[in-house]
Every structure is written in C-alpha cells, then in structure tokens.
Structure to design on (144 residues):
C-alpha cells in the first residue's frame, strides 16, 4: 500500500513539473528591466525606470515611475517631474562633470589617410607582448 501511494505522489509531482513554462527569449523580452534612479530630495518617494525592448523598433521603450516609501501604487511620471538631484553638478551649480571619448592612438585607415573616409582598414604598428607570449605557450603545449 505504501508503494502505491508513494508512486501516486511521484506521478502527481512529475505532472506538475511538466506544466511549467519554458523561459524563451520572447518571454524575457516581455519582462521589464527595472533600474533604480534614486530617492526624491524630500525622501518620501523612490524613482525608478522600467525599460522594455522593442525588437521591431530596435530600441527600448522606457517609462519612469514614482512610488511612496510606504509602498502604495506607483505613479508614472515624466523625466522633468523626477526632482532628482543631478550628481554631476557641483553643489553651487557652477561646474559640471562631463565625459567624452578621447582617441589615444591612430588605428583606422581614415586616421592616416583622411581622404579615404570609407576605408575599413585598421593599421597596427605592433602587437602587444602578451598576445605573442600566450600564442607561444599554446604552441609549446601542443608540441609536448
């Protein structure tokens, strides 16, 4: 009798495991990606953004929400309504931190020959030592 009831329980558990949904890329795309933006200056609300990718438009659609710290229903807000402090600005507002890309070395063909803007050539004067060192190690390990 114990074997029969044990077999029945195993059969029921196996059927419930089969009924679960499989995680597919399409299902993951439907999920929103949540990113925290901060707390309002009066420390009463949390601001966060939910981004959902759109494959047909090849971009993410973002919406910004505000939820009270007590956990009531979130309210959709615009970027101007967030009221968050910009941490890239100095406290007096006179200075702002910015970042930009700076080219260190010329690599592309258009860097050396400006008249060839459609060139896809990359010009390297030397390869780094680590690349060749690793390559020799692989070659030695294959020989021995």
């Amino acid at each position: 009798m114990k074997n029969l009831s044990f077999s029945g329980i195993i059969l029921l558990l196996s059927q419930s495991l089969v009924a679960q949904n499989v995680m597919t890329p399409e299902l993951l795309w439907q999920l929103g990606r949540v990113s925290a933006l901060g707390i309002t200056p009066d420390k009463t609300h949390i601001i966060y953004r939910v981004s959902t990718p759109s494959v047909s438009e090849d971009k993410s659609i973002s919406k910004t929400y505000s939820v009270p710290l007590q956990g009531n229903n979130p309210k959709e807000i615009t970027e101007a309504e967030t009221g968050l402090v910009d941490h890239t600005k100095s406290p007096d507002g006179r200075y702002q931190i910015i970042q930009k890309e700076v080219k260190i070395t010329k690599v592309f063909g258009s860097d050396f020959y400006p008249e060839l803007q459609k060139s896809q050539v990359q010009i390297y004067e030397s390869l780094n030592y680590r690349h060749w060192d690793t390559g020799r190690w692989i070659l030695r390990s294959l020989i021995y």
